Amino acid sequence: MKMIGLDVGSKTIGVAVSDAFGWTAQGLTTIRWNEEDIDSADEELGAIIREHEVNKAVIGLPKNMNGTIGERGKASELYAKHVEKVHQIPAVLWDERLTTIAAERVLLEADVSRKKRKKVIDKMAAVMILQGYLDQSK
Q1: In this protein, which residues make up the domain named YqgF/RNase H-like (predicted)?
Q2: What CATH number should be reported for the domain whose range is 2-137?
Q3: For a 10 Å CB count at each end of the chain, is N or C smaller?
């Protein structure tokens, strides 16, 4: 079963996909979207889901450090429901606390320039979200 990992922000959605066995996550792309228009990424995301024959979405849930769900978390919950409705695949929410920080650290250690980090950080966070879910599911 192939899965897609999504790091949903207010302006971009980082996208990662798993291999067919559900062992590894690979970064794919970053979709630009407008959070105010929840449908704005549907066409591009739908094409990726079809192309990669995705059966499940894993969406990052940005909880507060104390475990509560704030505004960004509620936006992710809303988007998960939207993905299920529009793309007809189940969506699960995965605690993504610190994934963007971890992704930034990995890119810094790899000596990636600030300009390039900005372009790939969401995609890298999506990889970490999906890989975390895959590792827990084994």
Answers
A1: 1-103
A2: 3.30.420.140
A3: C
CA distance linking residue 112 with residue 74, whole number of Å: 32
- Stated as kind and residue range, the H or E segment containing 131 is helix 114-137
Among all chains, which residue has been given the structure tokens 């507060």?
A: 64
Query: Domain spans of the chain?
Result: 2-137
Which residues partner with 52 through β-bridges? Answer: none
Exposure string of 10-48, with b = 16+ CB inside 10 Å and e = fewer, is eebbbbbbbeeebeebebbbbbebebeebeebeeebeeb
Strands 12-18 and 54-61: unpaired
pLDDT beyond 90 at 66: no
**Mean of the per-residue pLDDT values for the chain?**
90
DSSP state of 41: G
Nearest CA to 12 out of 92, 134, 121 is that of 121
Q: Which residues are CB-contacts of 136 (< 8 A; sequence separation ≥ 6)?
A: none
Helices (H), ranges, 10-111: 42-51, 71-87, 99-109
